[in-house]
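User: Let's play a game. I give you a shape written as tokens, and you guess the letters that built it. Ready? Here's round one.
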């Protein structure tokens, strides 16, 4: 008899409970009847990688930095754009200074009306003996850029009135000719505005004439100079007397700069254009019309300038500025950069010699125009109607320069008639 033993194995079945809670809610939490809040993943900017903060990734991808944490914003400032207001200051010049700088203001006004250079030098020496120059020197670093330009204009007036306009304040030889305290102040202000040779017409004229009344709303400075009456901050003629020839020449240069704003804009239009571009002759014709209008404006200034009074000291100041090449209007330098009337390549000779009196950003813009307008200047060696328009623009610029030179001669020595035939 065979006995068969059957072994029965009982398997324990584990009952796995199915989750009854909806997706996205805590499994251990009770069901309170609150609709679930969907979890939205953090959005990243396209192309952003890595596990950093999403807002940081977005800033790195788009280049925006609302908190200003990516470095100094001063290095990202746009370059100077003369189409806005030419080479005029962005805001009207400072008419009166405050604090200790009122002494410099008063000194400049007193020196400008001095009867001669000896009297002007004596005024500076009195300020040195009273320790006023050293007190001003110690406060140069506290000046804002706009007030530093205002102080530079007053220093320029004192320098040319004393016969020191052609000196280098840092040169050892200048210590033998001029007051050391004034030279230290001059050098400190030149360093503050980053412009060494600022004693010239751009500083003496463009920073010395301000609108007679303060505008109620923001108006571009070139429009103010064209439409509003201008008054000098530092007069070369005593108070209560008519403006001198030197005053009126500086006023004419300021108005010339304000009306020449369209020339700066046409220069930007011609920059980079090919000589056979259809818009090139149109821009050149407009340039001719602008230069003719500027010449007519100078003619209108000549009669009043010839009738104005002039002293020997004022004529000496004007003669010294002319001898140093410091009477060149910036707008004429802009036209020369486009048309190349100077006949020299950039970086050589007289052209760079005249530009040394301009700020760094203005010189950089003129050098850029030299390069970008080189294709247009090739019209001088071609024939055809476009080349004829280019030569007409050159001739109108030459006539404008002669008219301005005649105005300077009228201011330097008395003449009885209007501008000479050379104009």
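Assistant: Ready! My guess for every position:
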């Amino acid at each position: 008899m065979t006995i068969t033993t059957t072994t029965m194995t009982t398997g324990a079945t584990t009952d796995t409970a199915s989750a009854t809670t909806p997706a996205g809610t805590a499994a251990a939490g009770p069901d309170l009847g609150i609709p679930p809040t969907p979890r939205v993943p953090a959005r990243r900017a396209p192309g952003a990688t890595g596990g950093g903060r999403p807002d940081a990734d977005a800033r790195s991808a788009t280049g925006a930095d609302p908190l200003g944490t990516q470095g100094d914003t001063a290095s990202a400032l746009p370059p100077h754009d003369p189409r806005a207001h030419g080479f005029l200051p962005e805001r009207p010049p400072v008419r009166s200074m405050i604090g200790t700088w009122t002494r410099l203001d008063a000194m400049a006004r007193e020196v400008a009306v001095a009867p001669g250079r000896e009297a002007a030098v004596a005024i500076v020496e009195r300020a040195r003996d009273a320790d006023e120059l050293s007190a001003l020197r110690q406060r140069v670093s506290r000046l804002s850029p706009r007030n530093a330009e205002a102080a530079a204009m007053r220093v320029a007036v004192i320098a040319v009135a004393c016969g020191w306009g052609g000196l280098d304040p840092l040169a050892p030889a200048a210590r033998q000719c001029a007051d050391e305290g004034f030279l230290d102040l001059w050098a400190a202000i030149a360093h503050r505005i980053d412009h060494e040779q600022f004693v010239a017409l751009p500083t003496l004229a463009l920073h010395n004439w301000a609108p007679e009344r303060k505008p109620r709303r923001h108006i571009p400075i070139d429009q103010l100079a064209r439409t509003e009456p201008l008054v000098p901050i530092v007069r070369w003629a005593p108070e209560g007397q008519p403006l001198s020839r030197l005053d009126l020449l500086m006023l004419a240069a300021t108005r010339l700069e304000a009306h020449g704003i369209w020339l700066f804009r046409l220069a930007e239009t011609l920059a980079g254009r090919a000589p056979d571009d259809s818009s090139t002759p149109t821009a050149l014709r407009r340039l001719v019309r602008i230069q003719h209008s500027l010449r007519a404006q100078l003619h209108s200034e000549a009669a009043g300038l010839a009738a104005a009074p002039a002293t020997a000291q004022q004529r000496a100041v004007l003669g010294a500025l002319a001898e140093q090449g410091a009477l060149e209007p910036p707008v004429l330098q802009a036209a020369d950069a486009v048309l190349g009337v100077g006949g020299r390549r950039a970086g050589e000779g007289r052209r760079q010699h005249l530009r040394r009196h301009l700020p760094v950003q203005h010189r950089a813009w003129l050098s850029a125009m030299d390069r970008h307008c080189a294709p247009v200047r090739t019209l001088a060696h071609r024939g055809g109607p476009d080349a004829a328009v280019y030569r007409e623009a050159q001739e109108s610029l030459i006539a404008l320069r002669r008219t301005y030179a005649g105005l300077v001669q009228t201011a330097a020595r008395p003449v009885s008639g209007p501008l000479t035939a050379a104009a």
